[in-house]
Specification:
The complex is a heterodimer of chains A (about 110) and B (about 120). Chain A is mainly beta and about 110 residues long. Chain A has no helices and 11 strands. In chain A, strand 7 and strand 8 form a beta hairpin. The chains are: A mainly beta (about 110), B mainly beta (about 120). Chains A and B meet through strand 5 and strand 10 of A and strand 5, strand 9 and strand 10 of B.
Chain lengths: ~110, ~120
């Protein structure tokens, strides 16, 4: 299985901050990388696929980049509704997809 | 509007069985692979099982292989997960997830259900 790691595991930020989360795969996955947002008690929401393509309706403050083993999710200006846990996921080895452990973004 | 509505969760004793259902609407169900993903309390996301659009191909995580069976009824737009020989470590919220073909035999996820909680405890 491909192992996914994320850093940091948690971060505290203020409204308006630019936030970057890093995801690393244990082997190359091309651009077969997705990002999800999960708020407490809610189902995950799909944000990004193919490393950088936003799902319909996802605001442009979210952006993704990377290829191979190293990827980033950036939120350009953090808003109150963005405080959540973010997960990356590889789907290069499908259907045996694997998720990162998550990055919790909370209010400073 | 795509909707995925899970049901069938509950409290079950170790060694018991449950059958989860996921009612789908808003898309041509048999055109898409479907997946079950679970999340133990306070933990991350774990892939459980997947099934092709036709139902002819099924896949399982090692942790559930031989105990869980995924199936679908395309005439009723419903996905199932039959869970047998349940263990405490199967306690989790179970989500059904719709896939989208990404090329190369891969799918990415787009829509998630709201989840159904399975608790395995005596």
């Amino acid at each position: 299985d491909i192992q996914m790691t994320q850093s940091p595991s948690s971060l505290s930020a203020s409204v308006g901050d630019r936030v970057t989360i890093t995801c690393r795969a244990s082997q190359g996955i091309s651009n077969n990388l997705a990002w999800f947002q999960q708020k407490p008690g809610k189902a995950p929401k799909s944000l990004i696929y193919a490393a950088s393509i936003l799902h319909t309706g996802v605001p442009s403050k979210f952006s993704g980049s990377g290829s191979g083993t190293d990827f980033t999710l950036t939120i350009s200006s953090l808003q109150p509704e963005d405080f959540a846990t973010y997960y990356c996921q590889q789907y290069n080895i499908y259907p045996r997809v694997t998720f990162g452990p998550g990055t919790k973004v909370d209010i400073k | 509007e795509v909707q995925l509505l899970e049901s069938g969760g509950g409290l079950v004793q170790p060694g018991g069985s449950l059958r989860l259902s996921c009612a789908a609407s808003g898309f041509i169900f048999n055109n898409y692979a479907m997946t079950w993903v679970r999340q133990a309390p306070g933990k991350g996301l774990e892939w459980v099982s997947a099934i092709s659009g036709s139902g002819g191909s099924t896949f399982y995580a090692d942790s559930v292989k031989g105990r869980f069976t995924i199936s679908r009824d395309n005439s009723k737009n419903t996905l199932f997960l039959q869970m047998n020989s349940l263990r405490a470590e199967d306690t989790a919220v179970y989500y059904c997830v719709k896939g989208v073909p990404a090329g190369g035999g891969r799918d990415y996820f787009d829509y998630w259900g709201q989840g159904t909680l399975v608790t395995v405890s005596s």
